[in-house]
Amino acid sequence: MADDASDLPASAGYLTPERIMMRDLARRFTAEEVAPAARRLDPIKGDMPRELIERMGELGFFGILIPEEYGGLGLGAFEYCLVAEELARGWMSVASIIARGNSFYRSVPGEGEERRRKIEAMAKGQYLGAAALSEPGTGSDLSGVTCRARREGDEWVITGNKYWCTFADGADYISVLCRIDDPDAPSGRAGTTSVSVEKPKGELPAGCTGNPIPKIGYFGWKTWELHFDGVRAPVRQGPSGNTEQGGRAHQAVAFGLGLARAHTAARSIGLAQAALEDSIAYAKERIQFGQPISDFQAIRFKIATMATEIEAARQLMYYVCSEIDAGRAGRIETSMVKYFASEMAERVTSEALQIHGGAGYTTLHSIERYWRDARLTKIFEGTSEIQQRIIADTLLGKPTIRGSN
């Protein structure tokens, strides 16, 4: 991969020598191992190799956010998103799987030394999680979950359906967002809890059935619809001492979306950067009317606009990640960067496909994969419309008419 706009002097205030070293390590790994795997496996909808995951664990990519006391690197959102951007240039799914370590260590089940060992394994990519949040009728509004967790002694018994659970089969445990089955709650609207259900790697939990969802992209792993029929898991104390988030799990999930949205921005930028690089190379090689199409003003202006939009998103991401690490970022900043970067990625990858012409509409080039995956970034971790609503509500206050959207 060639040098790009992320090397501009404007980034110098953010990119310390240590961060540049980490970025370049991820960039080399992506060029040498991630991109070739994507070109080989994405067309056949194959899963990313376990050896690739193990190699990422050796490089520390699963432990960027995990504290050093647990064997992680103890770094911040900036380094996490810096690595994610580079990995997404090769395959967005690989950039996504690192969240199954970094963002999951707080939900690791167990207590004491047992839990410590699991987190240490997570930092190495050897013990990973998955999240079952959405349901067939519940997506953006997680307060409406209906999957039930009934307490029987020291166990939760889970019954209900979940949707969009990526890596449900490959993970070592699934964090399931449930409505607490409490007959004494007013109108049945009891609190929510996240229950960590352990299982063998490569299988679904006992009592859980499901099927992979037929997606148009985001290959490299499977995304599942799941049915829990009396699945049992121990009731555990969380790190804060409150049992399973004290009945306010969906609020805790919403709070954690800020980092996830910055991560999505990083993935969006990586996809767009890859599309730009491929377009520059193709435009220089493709001859029409006796000259490379890179000589045509229409193509040159497309490239200029694409590069500018990518760098604008990158600099916003750098700022937001720095604010997150300083404890200052609010919902508006993380929503802005997710919204801006994901919308940008769809535009840029679409323009890249246009530059490739008919070749871009084939699976012989990676452009169509960037395009398919970029389209998803506008949907997951909160749609673009949800981000606009958060931004508008922050600036204007809630709508004055109750029920207005």
Determine the CATH superfamily of the largest domain: Butyryl-CoA Dehydrogenase, subunit A, domain 3
Number of domains: 3
- CATH class identity of the largest domain: Mainly Alpha
Q: How much is the average pLDDT? A: 92
User: Number of DSSP helices?
Assistant: 11
The coarse overall form would be globular
What structural category arises from helix and sheet content?
A: alpha+beta
Largest sheet: 7 strands, mixed
Look up the CATH topology of the largest domain.
Butyryl-CoA Dehydrogenase, subunit A, domain 3
As residue ranges, the low-confidence spans are: 239-243
Q: Estimate what percentage of residues fall within beta strands.
A: 5-15%
Helical residues, percent: 40-55%
* SSE arrangement, N to C: HHHHHHEEEEEEEHEEHHHH
Rg (C-alpha, Å): 22 Å
CATH architecture of the largest domain: Up-down Bundle
Compute the number of strand runs.
9
